[in-house]
What we know:
The protein is of the alpha/beta class and 393 residues long.
Amino acid sequence: MPDPPDPERVARAALTRLIEPGDAAIGRSVQRLGAVRLLQGIQEGAPPDRLGLGADRIAAYQERLRKFNPAVDLERIAKLGGRFIIPGDIEWPSQLDDLGDSRPVGLWVRGRLSPRLPSLRLLALRSVAVVGSRACTGYGRHVAGQLGSELAERGWVVVSGAAYGVDTAAHLGALAVNGMTIAVLASGVDICYPRGNEALIQRIANDGLLVSELALGMNPTRFRFVLRNRVIAALTRGTVVVEAAPRSGALSTARRARDLNRHTMGVPGPVTSELSAGVHALIRTGAASMVTNGAEVGELVGSIGADLAPERVGPILPRDALEPPVARVLEAVPASADGAPVLRIARYAALSEEATVHHLHELGSLGFVERHGAHWRLVRRKRSHPSTGGHGE
């Protein structure tokens, strides 16, 4: 038989049923007393000043403690192929400690450990959050899916909330390339919400990780969604907002990431789209860096010099290799069919007649110009590039 869970783990499991996520007062009490002593104090009705909690809260917690058994919850999560991790565990992501008194008292994690699926701590070290509007546009869905797949292909773990819209697209993008993805839920890890994403959440449970502060069977609420966002922000190296209206919940994740000194990024959208207005405001005020693909995200959140995005350059044209004096002569040759005499070309190029003649012959051998009587003119091409025009264009 497996060893019984240690008292600290049992006490913290109980607290996840008693309290709402991010309760700073509970966090301070746990820090001062420890989870075991705090829970015992609640059960025994200790004086409020000793526990750092109000008398009404203590009474309400006593009533709720009679209705569940945390040891049973720990058995149930084990049967689901998961575990309950707490601060001090090898698997605990230490970056969550940046949340201070509002850090989770523990995390319910669903997903079996394997060489492909190492601990949450290791996965979080190279993870990026991709968040955005639930009612996203086709553009937002496409960009989120592309980011998810590009980041996964570069070895990044894609973290989101399993909601409709951008979250769904980001998770699916990572899974499409056999990448790793984590869903941080606002419910117990045994609850599939939204119901329409049941197949996706089950797939993440099999091929990735489901994570939650809430005990098994607990349902999501509007307030829990907001509090869930702080975990997404703290867990990851950076947060990318794909689409977000000015009052979008995704912006709260971005603000949390910024406050925690994580990289905050935004994908620009059409200036006419209300769903991109929130992202544009983040970028315009300097609260987020603009990114357009997974390589640019990786460059910002990755190791210096190790995750550089390829430089974007235009097409290299033959004239780009010309020396400056030769290029000036080419610019001085007019685009007209009659061309121009050497003296006029030399005057426009600010070169001597001798040097101009030399460079004209060089350009002629390269196929840029041709001699027409006493004049020189551009060689006519079937598909000319605008940059090959003369000084008169």
